[in-house]
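Input structure tokens:
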């Protein structure tokens, strides 16, 4: 319902201001993808959410007091969707973990003035679904470990794309100097870290752009490029190929494949607890027997479940992140 109202409002707003239908349609595609595929920050704050206090349709988010239950495992996450959609997606998933491990879980939404890295390190949450850069930061600062990574279309691997407008004179990375460039959020793996690797390997420094900036999401980067605000930008592979397939952007370059995001645990969680949770995650079958109990799990970064991982698999990304100052 919220998505329908938001899209309707956007249509009315831009048509009243004389925006062309082509730009309007591009905007509407990005609006829907922002809700359905990408991180949407700027939403209401929630504290801890009691799984038993939410109805099956999860329409109402129930705030819980800050007091902690020592018998409960608190689960956090890097935001990807509109916050209520994130909650609806993770609540059934935590019910699955409860049924498989015998432990009690509560969902925790990180306030805007804090980061999931800080909360995972401090033990505000004991386990979290995190992106690669968040994991690298948490591992470096707090000894956080990744126990599994998500299985996606490329079996736990993803790419970054650099895009431009179809009419642009940018055809390869060598054409980028002298143009403006939009990165994703500073902590974004596909929108910043991997894109920076691509540029560095091509011998391109940030100073060679006419200007550059860090935007809040992949959708914002795509919109900034399509509107002409920036000449080119870095974006995640799924959205980039979706837009390119509809003639809204052109792909300039694509990175090699890198390991995707996963589930991380606080350094102080007991080994036996980790073992039970890891076993449950590896047995998780979102395309099979668990499919009917889940909510929009295909929109997650682990649509096909989880696979084993190790700290060493992220050594190349860690080296680059350190070089770019992302681990400070």
């Amino acid at each position: 319902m919220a998505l329908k109202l938001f899209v309707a409002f956007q249509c009315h707003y831009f048509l009243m201001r004389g925006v062309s239908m082509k730009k309007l349609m591009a905007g509407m595609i990005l609006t829907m993808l922002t809700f359905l595929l990408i991180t949407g920050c700027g939403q209401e704050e929630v504290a801890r959410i009691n799984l038993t206090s939410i109805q099956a349709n999860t329409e109402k988010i129930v705030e819980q007091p800050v007091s902690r239950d020592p018998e409960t495992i608190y689960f956090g996450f890097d935001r990807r969707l509109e916050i209520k959609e994130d909650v609806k997606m993770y609540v059934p998933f935590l019910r699955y973990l409860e049924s498989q491990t015998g432990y009690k879980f509560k969902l925790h939404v990180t306030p805007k003035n804090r980061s999931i890295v800080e909360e995972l390190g401090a033990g505000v949450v004991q386990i979290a679904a995190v992106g690669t850069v968040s994991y690298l930061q948490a591992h470096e600062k707090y000894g956080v470990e990744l126990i599994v990574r998500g299985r996606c279309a490329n079996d736990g691997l993803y790419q970054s794309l650099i895009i431009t407008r179809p009419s642009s004179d940018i055809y390869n990375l060598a054409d980028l100097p002298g143009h403006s460039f939009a990165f994703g959020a500073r902590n974004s793996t596909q929108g910043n870290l991997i894109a920076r690797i691509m540029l560095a390997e091509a011998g391109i420094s940030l100073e060679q752009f006419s200007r550059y900036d860090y935007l809040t999401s992949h959708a914002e980067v795509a919109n900034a490029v399509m509107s002409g605000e920036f000449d080119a930008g870095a974006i995640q592979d799924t959205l980039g190929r979706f837009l390119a397939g509809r003639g809204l952007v052109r792909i300039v370059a694509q990175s090699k494949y890198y390991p995707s995001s996963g589930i991380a645990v606080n350094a102080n969680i007991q080994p036996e607890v980790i073992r039970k949770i890891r076993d449950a995650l590896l047995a998780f079958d979102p395309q099979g027997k668990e499919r009917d109990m889940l909510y929009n799990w295909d929109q997650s970064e682990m649509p096909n479940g989880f696979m084993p991982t190790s700290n060493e698999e992220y050594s190349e990304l860690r080296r680059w992140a350190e070089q770019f100052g992302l681990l400070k």
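The mean pLDDT is 82. The CA atoms of residues 225 and 232 lie 6 Å apart.
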